[in-house]
Write a structure and sequence with these properties.
Order of helices and strands: HHEEEEEEEE
Strand order of the largest sheet: 1-2-3-4-5-6-7-8
Distance between the termini: 65 Å
Length: 142
């Protein structure tokens, strides 16, 4: 009897682990909050990309699934747009998507091409679609 219960418990744990996808979410929010700065766009006339560094778009992802979209110059203030984000498997391939649900009810879908501790490359589902490269803030050189 104990053997059967043990097998059932192991099987349920295995099924529970398989039901979750394995996206490294800590890379996105750093286990608290992480700031990503838009550093490149493949579209030369992209209205979301500024060649002036202080006015570049930033996305700050928090571990409670909220985010803030603001210009770098306003970082640390309450300016910019806020909302909730969700990570999900893409419908057409095995990649992941970030769904940004803004407080004003707008939505932006970002297909993740790659993510590391300091670099995030996404395809922004805009018209036209853009490939954006984000980098994290760098520590000051002393």
């Amino acid at each position: 009897m104990v053997f059967i219960i043990s097998i059932l418990l192991l099987y349920s744990c295995k099924n529970e682990n398989n039901s979750h996808f394995s996206f490294p979410i800590q890379l996105l929010h750093g286990n608290s909050a992480k700031v990503w700065i838009l550093s490149k766009s493949n579209i030369s006339t992209d209205p979301y990309f500024s060649s002036l560094e202080n006015y570049r778009k930033t996305l700050t992802f928090h571990s409670n699934n909220t985010f803030r979209d603001q210009e770098l110059i306003h970082l640390g203030s309450n300016r910019g747009q806020t909302g909730k984000y969700k990570i999900k498997k893409a419908e057409k391939d095995s990649n992941y998507e970030i769904l940004l649900n803004y407080s004003n009810e707008e939505t932006l879908k970002l297909s993740i091409h790659s993510i590391s501790n300091s670099k995030l490359v996404v395809k922004a589902r805009l018209n036209p679609a853009a490939i954006w490269e984000f980098n994290t803030l760098k520590a000051p050189k002393i």
